[in-house]
Amino acid sequence: DAVLLAVDPSKDVDGFHPLNAGRLVAGAPRFIPCTPSGIMRLLRETDVTLSGANAVVLGRSRIVGLPVATLLTHQNATVTLCHSRTVDLPSHVRRADIVVAAVGRPGLVRGDWLRPGAVVIDVGINRVPDASRKSGYRLTGDVQFATVAPLCAKITPVPGGVGPMTVAM
Ligand code: NDP
Question: Is the pTM for the entire model greater than 0.90?
Answer without folding.
Answer: yes
